[in-house]
């Protein structure tokens, strides 16, 4: 398994970013996947999930602002983040649903939202 996140950066509050996660080493299309984030000094938390047929659900803190999508032909899952807030600042990761801290994790991508 390999998961490579990209697309992070520095953005002002109210701005947008689109993150990508390129997956390899497994049959991408048959797995639900999640985006997670970890802010400094905090535990990693789930941001949202996309099922194999494209159904999504989100944490309350991002619902209505973030959108997860996937492209099974490209083995890639996306996280569109709009109306960003300083509290969205974190390292963002993708992984399987309910991945434990001891599981494999990619390097993540840093998102910093300035006020």
Key attributes of the depicted protein:
10 strands; 115 residues; 4-stranded antiparallel sheet; 6-stranded mixed sheet; mainly beta; globular
Polypeptide structure, described:
The chain is mainly β. It contains no helices and ten strands. The protein has a six-stranded mixed beta sheet, with no helix packed on it. Strands 1-3-8-7 form a four-stranded antiparallel beta sheet, with no helix packed on it. Strand 4 and strand 5 (45-50) form a beta hairpin. The chain is globular, with a radius of gyration of 13 Å.
Short description:
Helices cover 0% and strands 50% of the residues. With 115 residues, the protein is an all-beta fold.
Using DSSP, what is the number of strands?
10
Approximate strand percentage: over 45%
Most strands sheet: 6 strands, mixed
Broad shape: globular
Structural class: mainly beta
Low-confidence segments, given as residue ranges, are none
Strand order of the largest sheet: 2-10-9-4-5-6
Output the number of helix runs: 0
Order of helices and strands: EEEEEEEEEE
Rg (C-alpha, Å): 13 Å
Overall average pLDDT: 97
How far apart the termini lie comes to 37 Å
Helical fraction equals under 10%
List the helices and strands and how they pair.
Blueprint: E1 2-6, E2 9-12, E3 17-24, E4 33-38, E5 45-50, E6 56-58, E7 66-71, E8 76-81, E9 90-96, E10 109-114
Parallel strand pairs: 2-10
Antiparallel strand pairs: 1-3, 3-8, 4-5, 4-9, 5-6, 7-8, 9-10
